[in-house]
Specification:
Strand content: 15-25%
Number of strands: 11
Strand order of the largest sheet: 4-3-6-5
Helix content: 40-55%
Order of helices and strands: HEEHHHHHHEHHEHEEEHHEHEEHE
Number of helices: 14
Structural class: alpha+beta
Oligomer: single chain
Distance between the termini: 27 Å
Radius of gyration: 27 Å
Shape: globular
Largest sheet: 4 strands, antiparallel
Amino acid sequence: MLACVVLAALSGIARAQELSSRGVPLDGIAAIVNDGIVLRSALDQQVATVTQRFEQQGQALPPRNLLRQQVLERLVTQEIQVQRAARLGIKVTDEALNETLADIAKRNGIQFADLPATLESQGINYARYREEVRQELTLNLLRQRDVYSRIYISPREIEQCSERRKSSPEQDMEYELAHILVSVPASATPEQSEERAVRAQGIYDRASRGEDFAQLAAAYSDAGTALDGGSLGWRRVNQLPSFAAEAIVRMQPGDVTEPIRTPSGLHIFKLRDRRSATSNAMVAQVHVRHILMETTEIEDDDTIRQKLLQFRELILKGDDFTAIASVNSDDPGSAANGGDLGWVGPGTFVPAFEQVVDSLEIDEISQPFKTQFGWHLVQLLGRRTYDATEDVIRNRCVAQLRESRAEEETEIWMRRLRDEAFVEYRL
C-alpha cells in the first residue's frame, strides 16, 4: 500500500511539473490527486455554482473558507472516482449521453435540439454541460459496479419485507430527509474518535436549537450530499438507512436524531416531511410470441423479410407457429419455448416492437418488421388487466433493501478510495 501511495505521489508531482513546463502555472493547481489534478479555476467555478444554488433556495451560506474546503474535497473525491472509472474502462457512449440529455430536455418541456440554445441563454456552456452529465453517468456506472452490484439481498429478506408491507400499510409512507455525516477514520485513535464525537454532538445541539440544517450540512458534513444541504430526498421505509430507520419512523417533521454511530462515522438526520405513497398496481399486459431473424453476410434484409413472409403464409395455412419458431428463431431466450415471450407489461419491448403489438388484434400475425435486434414476425395471443401488486411489492422490496444499505456502503467505499489515494493540496 505504501509503495502504491509513493508511486502515486511521484506521478502526481511529475504531472504538475509537466503542466508547469507546458505553461500551466503551478499556482493554478488546487490539488494533485494521484496522477491527476484539480484546477483552481474548477474550484472557483464550483464554489460560484454552489453559492448561486444556496441563494436561489434562500439558504444561508456557510463561512466561505468552509464552503471552499467542502467543494475542494468533493472535487478531489470526484477526480479519484473518475480515475478509477478510466482504469476499469467504464465509458458512457455519445448515444447513451444523448438519450439522457433528451430526457432532461423533455422533463423541462423543450426539444432536445433546443437544449444547447436554452442552456446558453442561461449562461451555461453546452459542451461543458455535456461533459458534466457524462461524468455523472460514468460515476453512477462505477458505483453500480463497485457498490450496488455487491449488495446481496436474500430471498428470506425479500419474503419478510413483502409480508411486512402487506400487513402494515404504513410501510408505504415516504420520508423527506436531510443528513450530516461526521466521518471517523477506521485508523482513528481514541482521542480522534472522541474529538469527532464532540463535533457531532455540537452539530446536533445547534440543529436541535433550530439552526439551519442545510447550512450546517454544507459547512460540516463529510457526506457526498454536503453541498446539497445534506438532502437525501424522499425515501420509503425500506429505503431508509437500516441503522436509522427505527428512529426516523417515530419522528415528526422538524425532528433531528441524536448522532448515530456506524463504521463510517456519526450520522445526524432531520425529518423535513412525510407523506403516503400508496399506488395502484393494476397493469395492462399482452401475451405475444415471435420469430426473430438476423441478417448475415449471406442473407440481407430483403432475403430475411422474404423468409418471414413465407413463414407467415405457412402459419396462416395451418402450420405450427411454435415449431417454426423453435427451428428458425435467432432469439435464444424464446426459441426453446416456441417464440413465446409470456405476459408482459408496458415498456418491456423497444418502441418499434411495442407499436406493432399495440396495432394487432387477438391471434393476428404481423407483417415482417425490423427493430435494432433484427427482423420479427409477431403474433398477439391475448390482452389482460393484471393485478401486479405482488410483483410490485417484491420488486420494491428488492430496490428498497438495496437502497437502505447503499448509503452506508457508498460512504465506506468512497472513504476507502480516498484513503488509498495520494492527495496534495496546493491552496
